[in-house]
User: What shape does this take?
Amino acid sequence: MFFIRLMPRSLAHKIGVIFAVFAYYFVPVRKKHIIDMLTLSFPEKTPKEIKSVTKEIYVNFAGTFIDIMFFPAMSGEEIKNLMFLDAEGEEIFAKVHSKGKGAILMSAHFGNWELTALSFSKRYPMSVIVAKQSNGLVDKLMNEIRTKQGFHAIYKDPPGTAFRNVMKALRNNEFVAVLSDQDAGKQGVFIPFFGRPASTPKGAAIFALKAKCPIVTAFGVRQKDGSMKMKIGQIPLPDTGNEEEDIKTINGIYYGQLEAAVREHPGQWFWFHKKWKTRQKTNGDLS
Assistant: This one.
């Protein structure tokens, strides 16, 4: 971080691209997995196009990593201005916030998700549900960056504590961001994603249903100049009396919006995740 921040951000990103391309060819972590998943998800693309998208995925992740290094040295105004929110998006957020119930912000590991959260926190009070990193020093560093730049981190474990903290944040009229695009294992609900059932976290939907608060979706699309443009959507809160069905409805809409964003910008989603790791068997059992 020290040496990277000695250079201009634009130069650091160029060096990041070099490292990303090097990793693509010589340190191909999950490269085969990414190519396999892209091939299944985009059968219309040629092998050459699939490899090009795979390389873009490495480059996008490198760009996210570089930006994280710069966050501690950036002002709040600089971070805010790196995210463009159009008039319609501004209106949606202002209207939701005026209700005073807080809101669940369903996002994903898309574009630069850390910048999306930090930039948004410069506009409205915000908490983000995060997973504890296995490396204690990395976990400490990430949370210092996040809290210094304006939002609260809520660890998703233990679940009971996380639930209480989320409810408290919503009562305080905060936006609570949840990245709901990872495999949720046997505890998840199965939702079609690129034509294949994928185990999906229930948490965001449960929080919204319990608090009866609005749900907004947000995906930050990386632009050529390194800034982000936020794609905003809304999810109507169902109330059928059947919680499991309502959870499926919310996640179904969310995954429809996420898939549309990924189809438009396939190189900006974090395909390193093993999204389809948990499989749904025809008899209802999980593997």
Q: What stands out?
A: The two ends are 41 Å apart (CA to CA). Residues 150 and 284 are 43 Å apart (CA to CA). Residues 47-70 form the longest helix (24 residues).
